Amino acid sequence: ETGVTQTPRHLVMGMTNKKSLKCEQHLGHNAMYWYKQSAKKPLELMFVYNFKEQTENNSVPSRFSPECPNSSHLFLHLHTLQPEDSALYLCASSPGGWGRRMETQYFGPGTRLLVL
Amino acid sequence: EDQVTQSPEALRLQEGESSSLNCSYTVSGLRGLFWYRQDPGKGPEFLFTLYSAGEEKEKERLKATLTKKESFLHITAPKPEDSATYLCAVRLFSGGYNKLIFGAGTRLAVHP
Questions:
Q1: Is the dihedral of CA A17, A109, B101, B7 positive or negative?
Q2: B2-33 pLDDT per residue, tens
Q3: pLDDT of res. B66
Q4: Residues B66/B54, Cβ–Cβ less than 8 Å
Q5: Which end of chain A has the least Cβ crowding within 10 Å, N or C?
Q6: Residues A54, B112: Cα–Cα separation, whole Å
Q7: What is the 3-state secondary structure (H, E, C) of chain A?
Q8: Which residue among B32, B44, B104 sits closest to A102, beta carbon to beta carbon?
Q9: Backbone phi, then psi, for B81, in 5-degree steps?
């Protein structure tokens, strides 16, 4: 069971384009996350939304802009990206909030992004 | 510096050949250690959470253990379907912030 969907699954964009990644969770969870997974690098936590409030921003460049309109939906708006931003972008959710004792995270399948 | 290191990078086993994967960490303020499995083209799948030294969790052929410096994922009599990349992540509280640091993973291949 994942219950976390991501669209699109694949995206090719130019450096001047603006695009958005979408994540939806059907699990009734209260926290949602964006991760970046680059080839041969560890998974990097980008943003955390805890009860719709952004609580973590791990030094992510401003060309990545998250949005969480409600507890079920999470977006990642992309603009003027660089080729080194090409990666797999994963969304995850967890039942409780990003509190002292983090609970299990459930991941979506990811969006494979290629920036030309 | 907070760091999570997984070893080996890759492991090839014969079906039924038991082994262990290692996740060592140098962090302060540990708030949990997580193991995930990731298949190619998919998101990570949660396996275990460990919170304190001495804790152990088991699921089918997998058993995770935790000490103050490292965690082991023991695989008993693996099958080809256990082939995947296994990721370890450490959650900590540092500098007034929560952090989650992943290791680079161990690619496991189990051959019949």
A1: negative
A2: 889 999 999 999 999 999 999 999 987 788 99
A3: 96
A4: yes
A5: N
A6: 47
A7: CCCEEEECCEEEECCCCEEEEEEEECCCCCEEEEEEECCCCCCEEEEEEECCEEEEECCCCCCEEEEEEECCEEEEEEECCCHHHCEEEEEEEECCCCCCCCCCCEECCCEEEEEC
A8: B32
A9: -70, -5
Searching chain A, which residue's CA lies closest to the CA of residue B92?
A100
Distance CA B18, CA A84 (A): 39
Q: Note the helical H segments in chain B.
A: none
Q: Is B105 within 8 Å of A42 when comparing Cβ atoms?
A: yes
What is the dihedral sign for C-alpha A25, A28, A33, A35? negative
Q: CB distance from B4 to chain A under 8 Å? A: yes
Tens digits of pLDDT across chain A (116 residues): 459 999 999 999 998 889 999 999 999 998 999 999 998 789 999 999 987 777 766 789 999 999 999 989 999 999 999 999 999 999 999 887 666 566 688 999 999 999 99
What is the C-alpha separation between B102 and A50, in angstroms, rounded?
20
Residues of A within 8 A of B98 (CB-CB) are 48, 55-56, 98, 102
Q: Which residue of A has its CA nearest to B37?
A: A107
Locate the chain A residue with the closest alpha carbon to B103.
A42
Is B43–A4 a contact, with Cβ atoms under 8 angstroms apart? yes
pLDDT at A1: 46
- Tokens 């805890």 belong to which residue? A50
The span from the CA of B78 to the CA of B61, in Å, is 7
